[in-house]
Design brief:
The complex is a heterodimer of chains A (384) and B (154). Chain A is 29% helix and 21% strand. Chain A has 384 residues and is an alpha/beta fold. In chain A, strands 3, 4, 5, 8, 9, 16 and 17 form a seven-stranded mixed β-sheet that branches. Chain A has a six-stranded parallel β-sheet with strand order 12-11-10-13-14-15, with helices on both faces. Chain A has a two-stranded antiparallel ribbon with strand order 1-2. In chain A, helix 6 packs across helix 13 and helix 7 packs parallel to helix 8. The longest helix of chain A is centred in the C-terminal third of the chain and has 13 residues. With 154 residues, chain B is an alpha+beta fold. A three-stranded antiparallel β-sheet of chain B has the order 1-3-2, covered by helices on one side. Classes of the chains: A alpha/beta (384), B alpha+beta (154). At the A-B interface, strand 4, helix 3 and helix 10 of A face helix 1 and helix 4 of B.
């Protein structure tokens, strides 16, 4: 089959690779219909996080048809059209059983590598380095899905591929930003980042009852999308004092909930010393959110691409009694609900696929997303 | 930190890394017999003790390390299942290939074994990685239908 692979020099190229195979009883093999780029891949391309090794396949947001089923799979049959959660979780450990599948103890093939990285093992992810699971990515004709009963979901007939695709990752991530930030009816919510996750966090805030939703970004085209498709007010950070404007829009209090969805440091030019030590500059969005948030409010951080930061305003967190939380999406918990909302037309996502490529041109899709974010929110690949 | 400071820091860090690498290489050459850590490696298995150690028998793959490790089991607080602990015995004779593969970190081997026990008990299987392209058979030509082992007859 064809797949988008890492090259030896870190370049991307579509290559001929062997088909995936069932490796565990709970696996299925999915024939990929659509697979999307994601901002979480940009730190890999920028070299700010450990890159996959040559030959590994990229991609984690996808949907397709089940073509092969492991002996232990109960909920899926050949021919099912499924959307697959981008992260891999077992559904059986203490964390999964308490609705925290992204914290799964058993979602990685090498928990000790994950422990070395984060202190504890966490759920794996398709198309990331082996320390993040050991699962080939979805920018391919076929992909193996472990724990398929837990992470693959049949798509309702009324939801088309272009909409359902984003139930794989962007929609549950956006939902988590709003839900994890504990948005309540009447809240003022600010979201940093008008990419796919930011727009869906803003939409989720509306669905949870927010009275005012404000999206901050530096790309006018993305802000226009947030206004048009989400109904959010927007702040262009290039020519506006974000904190002052947010105070103005919230009666001087500051937003009740601030969601950071600004994505990875795609174009950040790191010094040699920073690359060596792994340090990155303090992300503007998190720092701004902490300063802007009302006293006693909450800040939810979705961007895991910035691994370590210095100059974090800890004192502000303490003096304003803020709750700062973070998380990767809990798709195994949220995807069924999100698909239902998609079917009811409460959640529309198809506009996020701004560009479409056949798989053979997938490397172009990534270059476009990296170099021209003002026009490309998500590039979607069609393998067949 | 200015540019000179950065250069000095980088040079220092590179020197320290080189020294660590050299020490590690020397350690690898001298690392027989292996140095055993004294601490326990522990995982919490979200199942009761009787499921973790059915009939008081060590679960795989810990069973393969019988004689080389000590194992302790206790109920976890708050109904969180079972705390399963293991540590290498000092001067243990490691069985079979294990001794060859051990390197100089038996603690890591024990930890990996504990995670595998936990996966087996909680999910019924040990999750296996996708094989890298080089580890699998030849590719299927693009556009050719994928043969499926359990595809229904047409």
């Amino acid at each position: 089959m064809r797949a988008l692979c890492w090259g030896t020099g870190g370049e991307l190229a579509v290559r001929q690779v062997p088909d995936p195979e069932l490796r565990n009883d709970h696996d299925v093999i999915v024939r990929v219909r659509l697979s999307a780029t994601c901002g979480a891949d940009l730190p890999l391309l920028a070299g700010t996080v450990p890159a996959p090794t040559a030959g590994e396949v990229l991609g984690h947001e996808f949907l397709g048809d089940v073509v092969e089923v492991g002996a232990g799979v109960r909920r899926h049959r050949i021919g099912d059209r499924v959307v697959v959660c981008a992260s891999v979780a077992c559904g059986a450990c203490w964390y999964c059983r308490r609705g925290l599948p992204s914290c799964c103890d058993n979602g990685s093939t090498d928990p000790t590598a994950s422990e070395a990285e984060w202190g504890h093992p966490v759920a794996g992810c398709f198309g990331h380095p082996r320390s993040a699971g050991g699962f080939a990515g979805s920018h391919a004709e076929y992909v193996r899905v472990p724990y398929a009963d837990v992470g693959a979901f049949a798509v309702p007939e009324s939801v088309d591929d272009d909409r359902a695709l984003f139930a794989s990752d962007a929609a549950p991530a956006g939902w988590l930003g709003a839900e994890g930030g504990e948005v309540r009816p009447g809240d003022v919510v600010a979201v940093w980042g008008a990419g796919a996750v930011g727009q869906l966090a803003a939409r989720s805030a509306w669905l949870l009852g927010a009275e005012r939703v404000i999206v901050v970004d530096r790309h006018p085209a993305r802000l226009q999308m947030a206004r048009h498709h989400v109904g959010a007010e927007t702040i262009d950070r290039r020519d506006t004092d974000v904190t002052a404007r947010l105070r103005e829009l919230s009666g001087g209090r500051g937003p009740d909930v601030c969601v950071e969805a600004a994505g990875g440091p795609a174009g950040e030019n790191l010094s040699l010393a920073d690359r060596f030590t792994g340090r990155t500059r303090a992300p503007d969005a998190v720092r701004e959110a902490v300063y802007a948030c009302r006293k006693g409010g909450s800040v939810f951080v979705l961007n895991g691409g910035v691994r370590r930061v210095d100059a974090f305003p800890t004192g502000t967190v303490v003096h304003k009694a803020l709750t700062v939380r973070g998380g990767r999406q809990h798709g195994q918990r949220h995807i069924p609900m999100l698909l239902e909302r998609m079917a009811r037309d409460e959640l529309r996502t198809e506009h996020l696929a701004t560009h479409r490529f056949c798989l053979d041109r997938a490397a172009e899709g990534y270059a476009l997303m990296r170099d021209r974010p003002e026009e490309c929110v998500r590039a979607v690949f069609v393998p067949h | 930190m200015g540019r000179v400071g950065t250069v000095v820091a980088v040079a220092g860090a590179l020197g320290a890394a080189a020294a660590r690498a050299t020490r590690a290489a020397v350690t690898r050459r001298r690392a027989r017999p292996v140095r055993c850590p004294t601490g326990w490696q522990v995982v919490t298995v979200d199942r009761p003790v009787e499921q973790v150690l059915p009939a008081a028998v060590w679960p795989e793959p810990l069973r393969r390390l019988d004689g080389a490790v000590e194992v302790a089991v206790t109920g976890a607080p708050g109904g969180r299942g079972t705390e399963l602990a293991a540590r290498p015995r000092p001067h243990a004779a490691w069985p079979g290939l294990t001794a060859h593969l051990l390197g100089d970190d038996p603690g890591l081997l024990v930890r990996q074994a504990l995670w595998q026990v936990k996966q087996l008990v909680e999910t019924g299987e040990v999750l296996r990685p996708d094989r890298m392209p080089g580890e699998r058979g030849p590719g299927v030509a693009a556009g050719v239908p994928r043969p499926s082992a359990n595809e229904p007859p047409r």
